[in-house]
Amino acid sequence: MTDGPPTGRAGLRLRLMAWARLGLFLAAGALGGWAAQAIGTPLPWMIGPLVVTAALCLTGLLPMKVPDRLRPFGQIVVACQVGLTFTPQTLDRLIALAPVIVATALLTMGCILVVSVVVARAGGMTLTQSFLAAVPTSPIEAAAMAIEKGVDPVPVIISQTLRLSAVVLVLPLAIYTIDGWPAIRSQPGAGTPFDPVNILLLLACGFAAMCLFRLLRIPNPNFLGPLTATAALSVTGHGLPPFPLLVLALAQIVLGSWLGSTFRRELLGSAGRLAVVSLASILSLLLLCSLAAAGIAWGFGLDWRLLVLGAAPGGVSEMVLTAKYLDQDAALVTAFHLTRIFLFMPNIPWIVALLVRYERRQAARRDTR
């Protein structure tokens, strides 16, 4: 027989120590958010915790893995907040911009394929790996697809981790640099009073919708469920008051710290050239998507910031938060990303299977020469 986890007082003591370490880790992230806000960094309560917690993990000072079960809290809060911005006027604009939204999603896929081919030819990864490394999905899902197809998942995990974090760090700072660094930037939710009853009602609504979407096996239930429920309430005139700044800041601290905790010292330390190639490919993809989006914006007379955020190869929660902080239409940015999710997610498996078959045929031809 093998010994199981400690029970009784010993087990309780270990659990309390683990929660204490997690609390210290999140507190360090919160301190990073406060510092980022003090110096005027864009998206401070996301970027600050991300930078501080990633540093703690990479230096080995306080390596932690924020439990995945905490991440839905941040996603639910962001999704509910965005859902409440949906109005009949917003829906009319979404319908009017539907061709632009679909075209942007397809262009993003084209950019991903271009960067994947370039990276594969540069010798950093196989074509299948480079595609899975660049496509906007979660690191866990991308790694699972790699394993299922018999592909080494390590390069995929490294690139996906860098992708999520690099987009959050680079895009807001780049927009600030191009557009000008404002002296004062309003914080989303800053003017909303703190009402515990409204906060609990909104959280309960979002949590219930998340559970329903999970049961229905709808993609991205943690975000899409609360978004759909609160948007329906808002459009029908029954919207609840939005979350105050404190709740939004806590949600961003959780999301930023979760991203920071995905940096593993041993993984990135052993990656060497692969990490450099991954980072270069991610930045190239971000630049290519941004240029394509700016071109679409120019052609249709739209705000380039809106299109760049909509085309960015980042997570939907993070990009929507960025949109709210940069005073862009978060509902429209959400529509861009959700359109991409529903166009991409059903098609990623067969694209990966096609790439695997292609690479195996190419390898078989080389072996017969």
From TrEMBL:
Species this protein is from: Frigidibacter albus
Keywords of the record: Membrane, Transmembrane, Transmembrane helix
Biological processes, Gene Ontology terms: regulation of gene expression
Coiled coil: none
Residues annotated as transmembrane: 18-37, 43-62, 94-120, 157-178, 199-216, 243-263, 275-300, 335-356
A Gene Ontology term for the protein's cellular component: membrane
Protein name: AbrB family transcriptional regulator
Annotated InterPro entries: AbrB_dup, AbrB_fam
